[in-house]
Amino acid sequence: MMRYKSYLAGCLFFIFYIASLVIAEGAVTDEYRVDVNDVLDIKVLDHEDLHTMTTIALDGSISVPYIGTLNVKNMTLSQIEEEITKKLGEGYINYPVVTVSLVKSMSIKIYAYGEILGRGELPYDKDMTVMKALSTARGVTSDGLFGKLKIKRKQKGEGGRYKEIRDSGIRNGIIEDKEVENIVLQPDDILIVERNNTFLIQGESVNRGRAVLENGLTAGRALLQAGGVSKDGQYGKLIIRRKKGEDVGQYSDIAESNINDGIIVKREVEDTVLEPDDILIVERSKTYLVQGEVFNRGRFVLEKDTTIIRALLQGGGISVNGQNGKVILRRKGEGNIGQYYVVAESILSNGVIESRDVEDVLIQPDDILIVEVNRSFYIQGEIAKSGKYVLEKDMTVSRAISIAGGVSNNGLYGKVKIRRRTDTSPGYTDMELDMKEVTEGKETGEMLIQPDDIITVELNKSYYIYGEVNRPGEFVLKDDMTVFKAITIAGGFTKWGSEGRVKILRSNGKETGFDTIKVNLNDIIADETNDVKLEPDDIIVAYKGIF
User: Fold this and answer.
1) Burial level of 170, CB count in 10 A (0-12/13-18/19+)?
2) Number of other residues whose CB lies within 10 A of the CB of residue 5
3) Contacts of 545 (CB under 8 A, 6+ apart)
């Protein structure tokens, strides 16, 4: 009776143990035949002293208590169990219940490929998990720290074909999916660690080139990992390019944003999650050009909301030679390479832009800001300081003469001529003013000067008197000079001179030379309206009287 109970208990244990073994090992079947260096776990029910963990020797044998040496090479686990049961039952134990399990097999393998340090064949261990297998293979390489782990398993009845059963991302060498990490592997399973996904960063970042694409990496974080934006990209543009489907080498722009002081302006672009093979481009800062009469000429970074006045300040301000010039903003025409047109201009007055609207115009990329040299005028002739002068705001003829030191004595009674450029032939026009009108502040003297006007103060006009006067010679033709006044200025007649014998010789512009005007001073004395007004270059002749 006792023998029957012992036998029944042994059978139940054997069934339970075999079931647990199948669950634990999953793939070690009766078809497996052991080989050298395999490790076997041998248990005998109710005989703990016979529990043996043994390794198959090079000759294919194992050592079992009571039995001694037993050759098991190329036997299945069930065959080994039967052989040990038979040997123990031959006089040692009645109805022994023996279980043999494979602890480690040197012939059952799993395989590691890709970015694994110890890639190749790995010996299969009982209860070997994905994590344990990777540890046995010394982990992943630097090129797989942010790659992907895949598990492939041989499918029964499909001619040895493999199928991918699970995968997981890898983050800094750690399997992200803990379920995948704890999967118990089966013989012939294949572990593959794919190379890190990467993206490319180009342009004005501190560090350029191909970089590892970590899971969830955003454009903003990618820029920080690349050392940030370089000084030449602080006000540039960020562009994200992505592959177009399966088209090899075909990319399209999926997002872009301006960069302001090294910061991505659009939050949604900054938070864009990058995908494998994305290209991140930081374009060079947009610039504009400052030329002409500023202290610092050249190309400048176009910062956000840069206006004309701010641009001039960045250029160091307006030089002395441009304080009264003109500021001009030129802009590139669309589609016309190298073609620019004027979008704004204003006169400068002592370094101040006169038009507030022009002052607040926003600069655009590639604009050219020009400060022209001071507008000027020229003054010459009978003036104290001839030369070129800055045309300040509201410059009048009288003020211009004053700035030039005033009129010399030889021009006090001359004419003021102004030559001005025109767009019509012959390209200029002449205007004439009386000096008296200029010096007395009359309306004509307050005429405004225009750029490049040439002011000429002419020599005083003269008249001549000779004959029977006390001081013959050349005299300045002052305003409203008459014959009577002229003879008086010349000291009057000599004792031989005659009031009734005076002539004026006046040029007629013809070949004949002169016209003669007879004058009788007695008639003038009687009626001053008979006095004759002199003209430039008139010649007064006082004749002797007839006695």
Assistant:
1) buried
2) 9
3) 496, 497, 498, 500, 501
The two structure tokens encoding residue 407: 């009129």
The answer to whether 351 and 317 have CB atoms below 8 angstroms apart is: yes
Q: Give the length of the chain.
A: 547
- Which residues, in sequence order, are CB contacts of 113 under 8 Å at separation 6+? 119, 190, 191, 192, 193
Q: pTM higher than 0.90 for the full model?
A: no
Cα atoms in the 13 Å half-sphere on the side-chain side of 342 = 8
Query: pLDDT digit of tens for each residue in the chain (547 aa)?
Result: 434 444 444 444 444 344 344 333 444 555 788 888 889 999 999 999 999 999 999 999 999 998 999 999 999 999 999 999 999 998 888 899 999 998 888 778 899 999 999 999 898 887 899 999 999 999 999 999 989 999 999 888 767 799 999 999 898 889 999 999 999 998 889 999 999 999 999 999 999 999 999 888 999 999 999 999 999 999 999 999 999 877 667 899 999 999 999 999 999 999 999 999 999 999 999 999 999 999 999 999 999 899 999 999 999 999 999 999 999 999 998 776 778 999 999 999 999 999 999 999 999 999 999 999 999 999 999 999 999 999 998 999 999 999 999 999 999 888 999 999 988 877 899 999 988 888 777 777 688 999 999 999 999 999 999 999 999 999 999 888 999 999 999 999 999 999 999 999 999 877 778 899 999 999 999 999 999 999 999 999 999 987 5
Distance CA 223, CA 505 (A): 95
Q: Quick one: three-class SS letters along 440-469?
A: CCCHHHHCECCCCCEEEECCCCEEEEEECE
The span from the CA of 21 to the CA of 38, in Å, is 17
Residue with tokens 């002199």: 534
C-alpha angle 57/61/63, rounded to 5°? Answer: 95
As a whole number of angstroms, the distance between CA 75 and CA 115 comes to 37
Report CA dihedral (153, 156, 162, 167) to the nearest 10 degrees.
-30
Residue 327 pairs in a beta bridge with 346, 371
